[in-house]
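Box 3.1 A note on notation
Throughout this textbook, protein chains are presented in two layers. The first layer is the amino acid sequence; the second is a token string describing backbone geometry. Keep the layers aligned when reading.
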Amino acid sequence: MQIFESIKSIQAFLSVKKQQGCSIGFVPTMGALHQGHLTLIERAKTDNDVVVCSIYVNPTQFNNTFDLEKYPRNVDRDKILLENAECDVLFYPSDEIMYPEGKDDSMKLDFGALDKVLEGEFRPGHFSGVGLILSKFFHIVSADSVYFGQKDLQQCSIVQKLIDTLFFDIQLVVVPTVREKSGLAMSSRNARLSNEGKEVAANLYETLMKVREMLQNGEDLNKAKQTGINSIKKYKEIQLEYLEVVDRKSFTQATGNTSKKEIAICVAAFIEGVRLIDNVLVFS
């Protein structure tokens, strides 16, 4: 695996690969890699000749300083995992490389209504930071395809809007969420949970599946949603931020007129001070 820390060095390497006719798949991460990330690498390897993974904890997408400081980091372990997964390239830049102007002076992006609901509402500025760092990465890597997990469903819509609006010549590939045996969606933040916390967190997925079954059986949207909220509130260890049944394109509240194929159930909650998100599609 080739490791690059500067923009010029990785661009020079990838330029040769492109001249050789190689297709490039890109998996952007913030490190603390787990099986979910490795599944993205595996899919990218299936689709492309060269796979690039980035590890960069992007400060502009954190609206909570404590969350940024506590975000798990273990790049030495990550490098071993990427080597074992036969990733071709690791891009591991510093803040000085990605934000030479300083992160506080960086430009802001507005995704309209899409970043004002759910994650956008509870994490103001988050998607602006995501869009900004991805724009930089897309220019640097110039990949053919970029890979994200369905766990970050709203982010996937943000990425697609970024691609469409700024005419990036890259295809978004969304890969199904990888889960623990308990159903808990794999996340780098899970490393901050105790074993007991992980057991409690598994109830988020269990609740999503309960609401999903109700909707599949024709239950009223609001009744199904309230049943899910009540189920989660039974656990004093869970501080629910939101549970919503939404249109998966706009992420606004679903209605009776919403196409069945476009309904998603999304949840965000704190457990042991760790913020977790998850979602399921109702008719997938």
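Strands lie at 2-4, 24-29, 50-55, 89-91, 145-149, 171-175, 238-247, 263-271, 274-281. The chain has a mean pLDDT of 96.
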